[in-house]
Write a structure and sequence with these properties.
The complex is a heterodimer.
Chain A (H helix, E strand, L loop, with lengths): L22 E6 L3 H12 L4 E4 L13 E3 H9 L3 H7 L1 E3 L1 E6 L2 E7 L11 E3 L2 H14 L3 E4 L3 E7 L4 E7 L2 E12 L6 H5 L5 E4 L4 E7 L8 E5 L8 E7 L3 E7 L6 H4 L2 H12 L5 E8 L2 E4 L4 E2 L2 E3 L5 E2 L7 H20 L6 H27 L5 H13 L45 E2 L2 E2 H4 L5 E5 L9 E3 L5 H8 L6 E5 L5 E5 L4 H10 L5
Parallel strand pairs in A: 1-2, 1-11, 2-8, 5-14, 11-20, 24-25
Antiparallel strand pairs in A: 3-7, 4-7, 5-6, 9-10, 10-11, 12-18, 13-16, 13-17, 14-15, 15-16, 18-21, 19-20, 22-23, 24-26, 26-27
Helix pairs in contact in A: 1-4, 1-8, 2-3, 2-8, 8-9
Chain B lengths: L10 H12 L4 H19 L2 H12 L3 H5 L4
Classes of the chains: A alpha+beta, B mainly alpha.
The structure holds flavin-adenine dinucleotide.
Chain lengths: 516, 71
């Protein structure tokens, strides 16, 4: 069944009738990133206005692969379970050369995590769930068909001009967060450069509906016999929808390739029959670009407006949700009185994250679409060897799937005897706790996690679960008897000790931006 | 550390075997064979520091010079 696009109600904006008081935060764009940020801020007690030029969720599926970390973030925002229930869970990827498997990966080989490695779920569902959630929160004022047409940044606010079906109005925001996507009009209005590379390659991306029993795995082919010389990708989605990506080459004529009479035979060759319905298709070129900085005075960029990647690795939407994770608690704190310098840490951490995503995405895209000459030579050598020598298999790069980066928290208190997985800068690893999950007990505020040790009193919420084998493995390791972890509101480990006193915890808290 | 002193017992014999492996190949075939060979040998070495020294030597620069800051 095709997705039922229901338009959201368009209400008359108050600013059309009388000037609105300056808003603490205005978010431009109700894509996954803008919606998630609005919810994160509202959950922290900050009122938010969200402006979107449209009044339906994402047309065409676009993002489908949501990572474990995204699911954990979405869970904190109240929609994790819905995504999990509806999505197709998977963790195994297979890569083929011609028709033989050359590489296989399992993205979550260990048990004891609430969220799976990935779910596949059409972007329109994720946005629908986020909008439902946003509409439950009285602090969110979401205005559909409100297009931002001008932005004037000042020292302590930004003034916006907004066009609506009923006319245009102006509002002011102390903080304007531009979540307005890859083509970001706000970025354009500020005249900011968006540097990076364009890959000279075209891809046909299609969603089809069919009855089939492909396993819930990611299948990627280099030079398959059904699509000679190019690459292909197959993913299963809910509602009997399958995603197919076909590399077309740079010479392909996008106008011609967009026509169903060209698309249908190509897909028929992939699935082996004509018994499918074309749900949506588009021709893409891909780029890896980012802004040099994400914070520009009162204007903050997050998601695709700040950075774009090619989709092999699913690092676009997932990277954007990690921006939300790093920004939400800090911006809430700043609105509530913390020094604005706290936002520099958002900028620094998410530049780091964007660079890692761009590095991985561009390496995969180059492997898929090598320049003629030496790039092609080594690519083909790897594929050739992968069929007969194990060592070449991990070099086969069809995309390295999104994982949260580990932030470099230089000088954060650490104890090298504790396990590397939970070091400062990493997301706290999940584990079963009682009838629930550790991550559900962390986040939102700074928290002390005390594993087999007594937490010093530091005015913080304390989580002290009984020590299980999994908690021991993830938080103590073979050597330690107990440990104290300082966990940030975004569930990132800020500091850890085998023994800590109040002064040590307070100092680490201040360093992490937790007291002001 | 990359071994740059003579390390193959029969250098003439190996050299001949290398040429022999390329016999009958056109330029593209030879280039492909060399690429495979590089990958195979690189994996055998494994140690990234040694590989980086080898890359620098092949490019005609000393490894230290390559790594030194350029400011
Ligand atoms: C084919 C394809 C496959 C992908 N697959 C994946 C995947 O599997 N996993 C993944 O994580 N990512 C994937 N991505 C990337 C993902 O879709 C994006 O990273 C994600 O949509 C970014 O979210 P966003 O909220 O930043 O921007 P968008 O989703 O682009 O939202 C921007 C919003 O801003 C609104 N807007 C724009 N201008 C204005 C204005 N002037 N005034 C008001 N509103 C405005 C738009 O209407 C839109 O609602 C894929 C992308 C493509 C194209």
């Amino acid at each position: 069944m095709p997705y039922d696009y229901r338009p959201y109600p368009v209400r008359r904006a108050p600013g059309l009738d009388s000037p609105e008081p300056r808003h603490p935060v205005v978010v431009v764009g109700a894509g996954p990133v803008g919606l998630a940020l609005a919810i994160d801020l509202a959950q922290a007690g900050v009122p938010v206005v969200v402006l979107d030029d449209n009044n339906v969720v994402s047309v065409g599926s676009r993002a489908i692969c949501w990572s474990k970390r995204s699911l954990e973030i979405l869970d904190r925002l109240g929609v994790g379970q819905r995504c999990l229930d509806k999505g197709v869970t998977w963790k195994v990827g297979r890569t083929f050369h011609r028709d033989a498997q050359v590489f296989e990966f399992d993205l979550l080989p260990e048990a004891g995590h609430r969220m799976p490695a990935f779910v596949n779920l059409q972007q329109y569902y994720v946005e629908e769930y986020l909008i439902d959630r946003a509409m439950q929160l009285p602090l969110i004022d979401i205005r559909f068909r409100n297009r931002v047409t001008a932005v004037a940044p000042a020292a302590d606010h930004a003034a916006l001009t907004v066009e609506t079906p009923d006319g245009s109005y102006r509002i002011e925001a102390r903080w304007l967060v531009a979540c307005d996507g890859a083509k970001s009009p706000v970025r354009g209005m500020l005249g900011l450069d968006f540097d990076g590379v364009l890959f000279e390659e075209r891809f046909l991306i299609a969603d089809i509906e069919m009855q089939a029993d492909f396993p819930s795995e990611r299948w990627f082919w280099f030079e398959p016999t059904f699509h000679p010389g190019q690459s292909a990708l197959l993913h299963k989605q809910p509602d009997n929808i399958y995603r197919i990506d076909l590399q077309l080459g740079w010479d392909a004529d996008p106008e011609a390739e967009r026509r169903p009479e060209r698309i249908l035979p190509r897909i028929e060759k992939v699935v082996g029959h004509r018994d499918f319905r074309l749900d949506w298709a588009s021709i893409y070129t891909f780029q890896c670009r980012r802004l040099a900085r994400f914070v520009h005075g009162p204007v903050i960029f997050a998601g695709d407006s700040a950075h774009v990647v090619s989709p092999f690795g699913a690092r676009g939407g997932n990277g954007g949700l990690q921006d939300v994770d790093a920004l939400g608690w800090r911006l809430a704190a700043v609105v509530q009185g913390a020094p604005a310098a706290l936002l520099q840490a958002y900028d620094r951490e998410r530049q780091w994250g964007a660079d890692e995503n761009i590095l991985n995405s561009s390496r995969a895209t180059r492997f898929m679409s090598p320049d003629p000459g030496v790039e092609r030579l080594f690519r083909d050598a790897v594929l050739d060897l992968a069929g007969r020598a194990d060592f070449a298999r991990p070099m086969v790069n069809s995309g390295r799937l999104s994982k949260p980066c580990v932030y470099p928290l230089h000088g954060a208190p650490d104890d090298p005897a504790l396990p590397p997985a939970s070091r400062p800068g990493a997301v706290a690893p999940d584990a079963p706790v009682g009838n629930g999950w550790l991550l559900n007990a962390l986040g939102g505020d700074f928290t002390l996690l005390a594993v087999g040790a007594a937490a010093p009193s530091a005015g913080l919420r304390v989580v002290a679960p009984p020590v299980t084998d999994m908690l021991r493995a993830r938080y103590l390791g073979p050597a330690a008897e107990g440990a104290i972890y300082l966990i940030r509101p975004d569930q990132v480990v800020a500091a850890r000790w085998q023994r800590a006193d109040t002064a040590a915890v307070r100092a680490a808290l201040a360093e992490a931006g937790g007291c002001w | 550390m990359l071994v740059t002193t003579p390390n193959i017992a029969d250098p003439d014999g190996f050299y001949a075997a290398l040429l022999e492996a390329h016999r009958g190949l056109d330029a593209a075939g030879s280039a492909a064979l060399n690429a495979r060979l590089v990958l195979i040998l690189a994996n055998h070495i494994g140690d990234r520091a040694v590989l980086d020294e080898a890359l620098a030597l092949a490019r005609g620069v000393r490894a230290e010079a390559e790594r030194a800051p350029t400011a």
